[in-house]
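Pasting two entries for a bug report.
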Amino acid sequence: KGVGTRRLVKDCSSSEQSGSTVMSSTMSSPKNPISIGCKVTVKGKSKGVVRYIGPTKFGAGIWVGVELDKPKGQHDGSYDGQRYFTCKPMHGVYAIAADVQPLKPWQSAVRVIQGLVRGKAEKQVTDHKKTFLAWNALELDEEAQHHEQCATQERVEAILRASHPSIAQLPNEISALTLANACGMSPDFMQWGSDIEVEADYEGPHIQFPITPQGAATLLHHIRSNPDYPVHKKYVAQLLGRICQHLVDDKVGAVNQVEVPPKGKLVVFGDTHGQLADFLLVLQRHGPPSDQVAYLLNGDIADRGDNSLEIFVVILVYKLLYPNRVFINRGNHENHDINRKPADCGGGFYDEIMYKLDGSIFLMFQQFFELLPLMTIINKQVCVLHGGIPRVEGLTLNRVNAIVRRRQCPKIVQTIDDAILFDLMWADPQEAKGIAMAAQRGPNCRKFGPDITKRFLADNSLSLCIRSHEVPISLRGFEERHEGRLLTVFSASNYCGQAGNYGAIVVFDDEMSYTLEEHMAPDLDAMILEYNKTTTIPPIAPNPLIQRKNSERDRPQSLAQSRELMNHEVISKLEVKICQYKDELWWYWKRIDENGSGMIPAAKWREGMTNTLKLEIPWFSLQNELARPNQNGEVDYRDFLNRIRNKAIMTGLKKVDNSWEKQILVTLYESILMADLTLKQTLAEFDPDGDGVVSPWEFKQALQKAKVDIPDGQLTALM
């Protein structure tokens, strides 16, 4: 299809074989005294011992046969059917005399030091990747728990629908539009923000419509110089309303067809997750959107980081200015239920919007998310989607475009449309052929193999599929898979301030050749300081209104710091997980401990952790810190479980919230558990008349049955 492929070029030059001389056991000169048995270096790199000096049949001149210390050679001393010396396979090499130099004592010392340094660096990288694997496995486990909770919620809602005919007609997946209408929000996008006043003391940028190049530049300057002073909610509401109206008027479907600007370029972002430094770094290198520079953001702009709002604001402004140069795909984090989770559990966008603006803006964002396309086709050749290729056989672009996407991502997959929408945002690749369950992400998630990618591209006359959704295990910003047909791109470098990964983007030219550019963004404060030093326009608002909760100024700048932070989080999360499965772990190891000593081999400890917790984690690298095996390689599993439990109790006591609300909810929850009722019976305790609504009186009666008696004022506050 004419899509240019990216190439990694490596220097693989080999020594020339030329020259002629007679056989000799020595080559003596003031500069190059070499003899048989002499320790030498070849081309200043490989170290070895001279085994032969003299002429050869394969080339004229003096050739030196060297037995290398490491298997970096080409043969065992025999070349082209002629043996000149004998050594281990792949240890022999021939070089012209000029490329062979005696090894000096100081060079040996330098090589020892270099070897130690390289060994230490390689160990740090290896340890970091092992820690990342554990961290990533726990992240996926949290997502799996989220999907399981969603499935449980769906089952509860199904029971409610069956029990209460009055709500049986409501759609299974309530859209953001339904929720906004229930909250009294105007259905007219162009009216959004019209009822909001800008305070007189507001010092941020004022956005005028229609957007002008100068207005967009002023807004971008503000974000670069002082992102902690949020744009006023009136302007954010107006931006969202106009963008939603544009998407409706332009009839943008689930599949969006775009073109690379003539004689220009199109930059494809992967996940940014509120990491403003990565976003601004790319804009600094390639320039903001213009007639010659287009941008495509492949979802997951929201959540995790502190500055999703600022990235959205810049993109929305330039989308209005250059509607055919700015494009956005929807990712799995552009969804209400994920956004409502805390940042340390994978969400955070709701908290960010509530902290900077208010809840009405959050509902506007949800409607905007539901209008975004799920897939973008570049020049009818390259497919860009967030998650992966759906499990539906024979899927065409027309079929994708026909689904109803203006809704939340389904909690459970029940229809073909559900599967298409869900997989486009959640699916992952695998090396095995076919479709398989992605149990580590959740019961609804699927993996797709190289045959699925090949068939989808062929069925739709495409050459390449670009996706995002996950940090490559290599910790690079990109990963090529499925015989080069699938490219994963992730743009948030040092993800969450811990992963230590590179970020990357894809840059297409108008001939559809592309380059991959990796980066490691500096911390945001350093970028702001540098920008304010060089710009001639003073910052609009010198005093920030918002203090970043997970400030990028705390992002570690070394691999060791990243690993330390990651390792601390891994241990903390594992301790919680171990407490949850304490009984199962005890019984697993108890069956192995036949003599009741309490001691088991470390290998059996790892086996129990893997089989019980169901986590793909390099337990060997964590066992010294967690299990503390003795000199005989045995683990006291009873001490291990008690130690983890006691630590969790002490940590929990430090975090106890003694507020009356939490005490009431804890008591109520314990009462429900002790009653051991069915789900229908439990619901009936709160809704005895079965009308589907829990009134304050009914709720108070339920609390009294649970032996929780509170005044009406506290009851109202609690509800």
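Entry 2 (this is the one that rendered wrong in the viewer):
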Amino acid sequence: FFFQRRYLDPAAADTIVLPLHGLKLEKRLHTMAPLSWKHLTILGTLLLTLTEGKKLKRVQSGKIYSEHDAVNIVVNKVGPFLNPTETYRYYSLPYCKSHATVEEGDLATSEDENGANILRGTTAGGRRAALKKLGAQKHKMRMGETIMGDRKETSPYEISYGDNIDWRLLCTETLGPKELQKFKDAIHNNYFFEMFVEDLPMWGYIGDASNEDMILGEVEGSKTILFPHLHFKLGTNNDQIVSVSVITDPDRQVDITDITQPTEVQFSYSTEFFIEPDLSWKDRMTRYADSRFLPSGFEIHWLSIINSFVLVLLLTAFLTIILLRVLKNDLSRYMELDEETMEEEESGWKLIHGDVFRFPQYTGVFCAAVGTGLQLIITTLSMLLLCLTGIISTTKRGSMMSGMIILYCLYASVGGFVSTRLYRKMNGKSWVNCILFTLTLFPLPVVAVFLWVNTIALMHGSTSALPFTTIFTVACLFCFLCFPLTLFGGILAKNYCSADFNAPTRTTKVAREIPTEVPWFRSRYFQMLIAGFLPFSAIYIELHYIFASVWGHQIYTLFGILLFAFILLVIVTSFITVALLYFQLAREDHRWWWITYINGGMTGLFIYVYSFYFYYKRSGMSGILQSSFYFGYMALVSFAIFLMLGSAAFHISLIFVRHIYGRIKCD
């Protein structure tokens, strides 16, 4: 429906029919009043309902099963294993959407190892479900699951709790050249599939290719094999399902190398229930660290953690001792001078006491960056603490992503308050512009990257493309939660915070000239290099495991270590920035505001540079879709780290500058 600003098109029909829901809206078009916010809200809700359509309820986890209760196998997506973001609907491949009938199952045959035909069907074990299941029916999902690219749908597998099935026919499909080509392309691209039982994921490969050339691909003598049979293993404890896995049977294969002729394929399955006495339901996710399907070698090495911790301690202790020793000597010398020799003996950082509190250029952007960085720091710490305490379940798909979005919006008042408070202390006059900068400094790049990657995903038909409902929900959170709270924080700072900066020294009217001849090792660019490299070296080892978890199929659960590493990163960045600030002031350069912020945030740039190394040397990712998501979102993550560490470095540097200039005698 296309609505004009005030009225509907007079030439339109008097009755609007909504065929999906059988609704009729009769309006007198020529006398319609202007659309109000109430009407727009109703319209948005209506569009959401039309877009969402009818979906099944989510399969709840933790169910207590009785004998022969139906167990739901939920299919999710398929995609190249090495490209975790490049995913597609499970039924984008021609899988069975309905179960074979009892008569078809009784007539189905499969060959044993000796080549004999054996009658298999419902007599091979297990009970048939009372109601026939259909596949490709969409499930309702949480916002976080949708953001993660999940598209859960029903499957026709008929499994009942506690009933083992030796073999059962799912369906018989005659695949033509088009369908065979889809399967063949998927197998050659190393596609995997993902399914769920409750909230427990399981993975398997679609097929296998043998005798392929690493460079040329399919050559003469190579074979493409489809796995039509799946064996489900379900572990139980206290009548709850605590572990699941799916295995493809190598003895039941279909050769689809030749796609010119139609091929009849029998898709089948079997089930096995077993007792897991040592695995409770609350610890069900611990088994995924040992999954054979996931790559080994992704474990967190405690030795590397100890190494990083010792490195940070030594670096921090070294900087602390040096700074305290140098500052003590400087302060003692300055305090012993009398007033007659004060002017003659002034040098170094003492000489620029009249310029060090001269406010920087572009104060609105600077204050917005400081406020947004602090907002992101509090959001990150809160998220890690909530994950540690179990308030946010890390086992639920997308729960962390949803939590980050909501927490960022809730802490918008912190960003608005801090940025406006600092802006007023810097004699800023246009506080509204400062609020707007704070509101858009981080979300605007997010929207720009999202528009690019979402367009690429839509062009490829990938599930990574967000649907309209999710985009609308996030937009509402920003408009009706983030924006008002940012404005509230700014108004609070404007009305109740003092505008006096309370600098310990007076600022002169004319800025002092800054020396231009400095050694290369004391130049600004070399200090920026050191400021980024040293903190990065402290987290380099752990960074590999974090990348492998985020851009892989590993489930990351060590949030205590992640919190510890984040705190160490903030501490070492702050100390290094303060040390570099002292050397900058000692060479009589009073332009420290932006420099300390940039020095602190340089680690974010190093992380982004490392992402290129990881992509090309440590991962097998490829393709325009995966690379767009990877480099786009890594740019956002690096920018967020830049804002966080820059804000932390500035606050520590401001405390340091206030302290040293508050201890000296000056006119």
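Dev reply: Rendering is fixed now. As a check, the viewer should reflect this: The CA atoms of residues 373 and 643 lie 4 Å apart.
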